[in-house]
Each structure stands twice: as C-alpha cells, then as structure tokens.
Amino acid sequence: MWKVGRYIKEHTCDMGTCRDGHFNLDVEMIANVLRVDIEKTPKFPIKDCQTAVLKAYGISISRRKAYLGRKRAFEKVYGTWEGSFAEVHGSFETLQSWNNS
Q1: Per-residue confidence at 17, pLDDT binned at 50, 70, 90?
Q2: Considering its fold, how many domains does the chain have in total?
Q3: Is residue 16 part of a domain?
C-alpha cells in the first residue's frame, strides 16, 4: 500500500510548450464557447473562432482546432447532415403513404 504525500517542488509546466493550446481544451469546450456566435452568424470565420477562444480561456488554438470546434458548434445548433437526411427520408415516406391512400 502507498500513500500520497505532499509535492513541495515548484510547478514547472509551461504553456509555451503546448503547440496547439492546452491539452484539456477539447472540441466540446471550444464548441460551447462558439455556440452563441454560430447561432448569430452561421459562417463565423475561423480567425474569429480563435479570437473568441482566446478571450474566453486565454489560450491560443490552432486553425484546425478552431475549425473542428466551429463544426461541432454548428452541429449542436443545426444538427448533422445524417440527421437532416434521416428526417427528410422519413417525411418522404409519410408523404408517399398519404398519396397512395
């Protein structure tokens, strides 16, 4: 059995070593920040996404992470292509059953 003791040394983690922002700042967190902006402006620019995350968390993110966050925020607001297609397909089946009657 072991016991956790105190770690007395100074914390040496440097945010400058994280190339694409903080490791725990994932796409879901970025999407939550961008959701309101995506509702207002569906074509919200990537550069503005990066700026919004920088203002919210104080962390710079890559263009790729900003793109993925914007895409996820868009899906949260408007749904996915697959979901939209499934709804249209279901509507066509209903329409077809009404027309065959």
Answers
A1: very low
A2: 1
A3: no
| Token pair listed for 51 | 């700026």
The span from the CA of 69 to the CA of 60, in Å, is 13
Residue 66's closest CA among 37, 94, 93? 37
Q: What pLDDT, on the 0 to 100 scale, is given for residue 95?
A: 78
Q: Print the domain residue range for 62.
A: 23-100
Domain assignment of residue 86, yes or no: yes
Q: What tokens appear for 94 in the block?
A: 């209903």
> Global pTM?
0.67
User: Does 64 reside within a domain?
Assistant: yes
Rounded to an integer, the average pLDDT of 70-82 is: 92
Tell me if 68 is assigned to some domain.
Answer: yes
CA pair distance 20, 34, nearest whole angstrom? 18
For residues 65 and 19, what is the distance between their CA atoms, to the nearest angstrom? Answer: 11
Work out the angle at residue 23's Cα, subtended by the Cα atoms of residues 22 and 27, and round it to the nearest 5 degrees.
95
Distances (CA, A) of 1 to 5, 6, 7: 13, 17, 19
